[in-house]
From TrEMBL, chain A:
Protein name as catalogued: Elongin-C
Localization of this protein: Nucleus
Residue ranges of every copy of the SKP1 component POZ domain listed in the record: 13-75
Family designation: Belongs to the SKP1 family.
Main location: nucleus
Alphabetic keyword roster: Nucleus
UniProtKB/TrEMBL annotation, chain B:
Official protein name in the record: Uncharacterized protein
Region (Disordered): 1-92, 276-316
Stored Gene3D superfamilies: Ribonuclease Inhibitor (3.80.10.10)
Any Pfam family: LRR_8
Biased composition (Polar residues): 12-21
Keywords linked to the UniProt accession: Leucine-rich repeat, Repeat
């Protein structure tokens, strides 16, 4: 997915925008671990998101989306490793992250 | 004033009675401080000497030595019953608001109780309130069990017998006190006995479907009987019971056992007797070898042996030695050999099946995978496969670590997808039964990503000449049923799509048997 989009001259990075206007620029390949984002950015889909590489999430606030972006890099960094360290999540965010994870299908 | 509450009749000493009437003065003179501050009295209250403002009066009544008071309270018993209850309600107002946990209180428990009190004011989804109601009903039988455990602890009775109690659920809190069990030492001079108990827990003939995780923390558990329950699966924690000598799992609805049960056959364990049957275990469906005569092969497999001279029956052509088997050292009393496995079942992040065999309740036989089968994951997310847990798993793990886990489903918004509630309730039951670890990499997980069943032959070695199957350790002769029953299906679960069975060393049936014989 990511390689095909790179071939078409698209940016290596995508921007994730939260409900309260925070923007997170993350690697496209890392973000595409989420099935929902991968579908949004699919160039065949003709979604707005695919054209300008900006995904707006109306249901996820900045604090949660920051953690989501952190996860994308955590997953990307550990993609070929045998011993994967645990990712820490503050307990107050766990329910919101759970819902975000279900929404993003990650 | 004296109308609703009859004053104590102090028959012995008239001076005491006058004392009671002059309460205000009396009170000031007494040096003993009140236990807690009095309830606030406001000028706006309709009547300061209101009927229910009885606390002070009661205090006055009990002034003086106790032996003067006793006859008075006895006399006014009947008429006092009703106001007595009223007074009880005052207790909460006396609370200073400062929380001090006593030694005996578990802070977590108190906090949970407080939480549940708060939560009950929130609008709860229907399913949740139903669950708590069910919990209450069970509590009565559990309380009996609790008091019995307490009794056993007091007496030093090591046989904890809850057979045929109609138990549906056992909670962790009920079992937890057993961990503190200590033997009562006999008082004989010069004789020293170990204080380590040899606990025997009998839970036979109940309606249990799950076990509390605390039971697996009982290091001194020697006998565990779960005969005649409704178990469909055992928690993986069973492998932690390293001092277990007898385990009875017969007459349940078990279709497979957890892979961790193999720990009980390691060289450091003491397991002596194991009852697995009858249970509706999955049976391997071995494809007939096309090179041999089909009919013969099939019947050979069915009756267990082609030639009676062999000590071990042939299982068919599919055979291999799992690396796990090589890595471990087994107890000399048990012969444990890997036989076959099913294909790997791949699960999505929320536990739905994407690929692989169906382990439904209706199928008794599951086709086995080829020896050379290499598991192929379904199309991966992104461009790479990763051992990293999914975000859903990470978040669920964080939820599981909080002490408020059982209440979390009620905090979800009403329009949240039902799968989240299911996942959270799944996490609750997982946490209660002690959690689970990936059988490949050892990582803690909640939602498995891969599943497969391995059949292991577990049999007890009797002597050099022969061996009996786990089903009937005393029988020397092997028959068809024994052969089938010695094949035990073990469920293995992995935490990521890369946690799959390792390739086995391929050997043919007879060579495998010879090799294990040499190993014996």
């Amino acid at each position: 997915m990511a390689s095909s989009s790179q071939n078409q001259g698209l940016s290596k990075y995508v921007t994730l925008i939260s409900l309260d206007g925070f923007e997170f620029v993350v690697l496209r390949e890392a973000a595409c671990i989420s099935k929902a984002i991968a579908k949004m950015l699919n160039t065949q889909s003709n979604f707005m998101e695919a054209k300008d590489g900006r995904c707006v999430f109306g249901e996820i606030n900045g604090i949660v989306l920051e953690k989501v972006a952190e996860y994308f890099y955590y997953n990307y960094k550990n993609r070929n490793k045998e011993d994967v360290p645990d990712m820490e999540i503050p307990p107050e965010l766990c329910l919101e992250l759970l819902m975000a994870a279900d929404y993003l299908d990650t | 004033m004296a109308d609703d509450l009859p004053l104590p009749q102090l028959r012995s000493d008239p001076t005491t009675e006058s004392f009671t009437k002059n309460a205000a003065r009396k009170r000031a003179r007494l040096s003993s401080p009140p236990v807690s501050s009095d309830p606030a009295l406001f000028s706006s209250d309709d009547d300061p000497s209101a009927d229910n403002y009885t606390q002070e009066r009661r205090k006055k009544k009990y002034r003086g030595p106790w032996y003067h008071q006793r006859p008075a309270s006895d006399a006014g018993q009947d008429s006092e019953d009703a106001p007595e209850k009223k007074r009880r309600t005052f207790e909460r107002q006396f609370d200073s608001g400062v929380f001090m946990g006593s030694d005996g209180t578990d802070v977590d428990e108190v906090l949970e109780e407080l939480e549940s009190r708060n939560a009950s004011t929130l609008p709860l989804p229907l399913s949740h309130s139903h669950r708590t109601q069910a919990g209450h009903r069970v509590a009565t039988t559990e309380e009996v069990v609790k008091s019995q455990i307490h009794g056993c602890l007091e007496e030093g009775n090591e046989n904890i017998d809850f057979s045929s109690r109609g138990l549906k659920r056992l909670s962790n809190a009920t079992i937890r006190p057993l961990a503190t069990f200590a033997r009562v030492p006999p008082v004989i001079e010069g004789v020293y006995t170990r204080l380590e108990p040899k606990l025997k827990v009998f839970l036979a003939s109940n309606d249990l479907t799950s076990l509390p995780g605390e039971i697996f923390k009982l290091d001194h558990l020697i006998v565990l009987s779960l005969r005649g329950n409704q178990f469909e699966e055992l928690p993986p924690g069973i492998g932690k019971l390293s001092s277990l000598k007898e385990l009875n799992l017969s007459q349940n609805s078990l279709r497979c056992l957890p892979f961790e049960i193999l720990e009980l056959f390691s060289d450091t364990s003491r397991l002596n007797s194991l009852n697995l049957h009858p249970n509706p275990f999955y049976q391997p469906e071995v494809p007939p070898n096309p090179e041999d005569d089909r009919q013969e092969e099939e019947s050979q497999y069915k009756i267990g042996l082609g030639n009676r001279g062999r000590t071990r029956p042939r299982r068919g052509a599919v055979c291999g030695v799992s690396p796990v088997q090589r890595r471990r050292s087994w107890h000399s009393q048990w012969s444990v050999t890997y036989q076959v496995r099913t294909e790997v079942r791949y699960l999505d992040i929320n536990g739905t099946r994407l690929k692989g065999p169906d382990f439904s309740k209706d199928t008794a036989r599951i086709p086995v995978a080829d020896v050379n089968d290499t598991p192929q994951a379904p199309t991966s997310r992104g461009d790479y496969k990763s051992r990293a847990p999914s975000l859903l798993e990470v978040a669920l793990n964080a939820c599981s670590r909080t002490s408020q886990l059982p209440l979390l489903p009620s905090y979800l918004p009403e329009d949240s997808p039902p799968v989240l509630i299911d996942l959270l309730t799944f996490a609750v039951s997982k946490k209660d039964s002690g959690g689970s670890k990936c059988t490949t990499c050892g990582r803690n997980f909640i939602v498995p990503r891969t599943e497969w069943i391995e059949w292991w032959e577990i049999a007890k070695v009797l002597d050099r000449n022969g061996m009996a199957s786990a089903a009937s350790p005393l029988r020397q002769m092997e028959n068809e049923r024994d052969v089938l029953e010695s094949m035990v299906p073990l469920m293995r679960r992995g935490c990521s799509w890369l946690c799959v069975p390792e390739p086995v060393t391929v050997v043919n049936g007879s060579a495998a048997a010879d090799e294990t014989e040499l190993a014996d």
